[in-house]
Design a protein that fits this description.
8 strands, about 15% strand, binds hypoxanthine, 8-stranded parallel β-sheet, TIM Barrel, binds zinc ion
Length: about 325
């Protein structure tokens, strides 16, 4: 039964709305890029890198994630990284991807903004031409840095705004509430950018309120802890807010203790527009279909849950309405 549901989920067109491109850096590529660029890494083998991917919370992961980025140096590196993700997710029938990148993770260590974004954008256009996959790019601000640094990044992005759909907010959540970035989100909105933010992954429901009220987000990344507040849930349902949920990430970072306790099914039952995403697939144990497999098994999802999740991914995307309708119609044509 589960095998049939898994085949059904695979066949459905899907959109990925929560994916950090730097988090798709597989140990093999990390190792090869370290060699190619003569970057010192504290690992002697791919196996050692894989073994280091053990985390008990978000900060544990982020320390390794930022260390891993150090091998990304040239435009070609960013191109290879992005192309590898697009090819891999295409195999899971991801037809549209809205991809985060962390420019400050690169500019902070002396790699220019233009190098990172050029490599990524070239891969995105190639995926469109080669296999018809559509994409959007979301520029994230690192919330452990001051708002002034986010403003500098927004300024650097100005020549590239035609290629950037939205800004986001990621990195260490607790102690860095959305309110810290109210001004820069307002400036981004005035430039015509869409707005998303990580909130309620480790942070309390108040951070989700702030993301809604102060940042005026168009989409909520994670949002798990919103379930602790019934009024907040009603508000998210009423606003038709999409939540980009990341099951394997939640398990690996201790946001949930056991996949059987994951709130995804409950979110759907409450009428929340929840979606399935891979977050940082190379660090958390899998891409889109690995995440579907984990929740189908653990939460006993049925055909209707799975179809809803696929539909939510397009409804919650930043695609133009006509393309959303086409993808939703394609989903309706797939039978279980
Ligand atoms: N949470 C916060 N910041 C991040 C994450 C995440 O899951 N992945 C990459 N940066
Ligand atoms: Zn994330």
């Amino acid at each position: 039964m589960t095998t049939d549901l898994l085949a059904f989920a695979r066949q459905l067109p899907k959109a990925e709305l929560h994916l950090h491109i730097e988090g798709s850096l597989e140990p093999e590529m990390l190792f090869n890029l370290a060699k190619r660029n003569n970057v010192d890494i504290p690992f002697k083998s791919v196996e050692e890198i894989r073994n280091a991917y053990q985390f008990s919370n978000l900060q544990d992961f982020l320390d390794i994630y930022y260390q891993g980025m150090s091998v990304l140096q040239t435009e070609e590196d960013f191109f290879d990284l992005t192309m590898a993700y697009l090819n891999r997710s295409r195999a899971d029938n991801v037809r549209h991807a809205e991809i985060f990148f962390d420019p400050q993770g690169h500019t902070e260590r002396g790699v220019p903004f233009n190098i990172a974004i050029s490599g990524i954008i070239t891969a995105l256009s190639m995926a469109k031409v080669q296999f018809g996959m559509t994409t959007k790019l979301i520029m994230c601000f690192l919330r452990h840095l001051p708002e002034g640094a986010a403003f500098e990044t927004l300024k650097e992005a100005e020549p590239w705004l035609d290629h950037i759909e939205a800004v986001g907010l990621d990195s260490s959540e607790v102690g860095h509430p959305p309110s810290k970035f109210e001004n820069v989100f307002k400036a981004a909105r005035e430039q015509g950018l869409k707005l998303v933010a990580h909130a309620g992954e480790e942070g309390p429901p108040d951070y989700v309120y702030e993301a809604l009220e102060l940042l005026k987000i168009d989409r909520l990344d994670h949002g798990n802890r919103a379930l602790e507040d019934e009024k907040l849930v009603q508000r998210l349902v009423g606003a038709n807010m999409t939540l980009t949920v990341c099951p394997l990430s939640n398990l690996k970072l201790g946001v949930v203790k056991d996949m059987r306790q994951h709130p995804l099914k409950k979110m759907l039952d409450l009428g929340l527009c929840a979606t399935v995403n891979s977050d940082d697939p190379s660090y958390f144990g899998g891409y889109m279909m690995d995440n579907f497999e984990a929740v189908i098994d653990a939460l006993d999802l049925d055909e209707s849950h799975i179809r809803t999740l696929a539909k939510n991914s397009f409804t919650g995307s930043f695609l133009p309405e006509g393309q959303k309708r086409a993808q939703l119609a394609a989903i309706d044509m797939v039978s279980a």
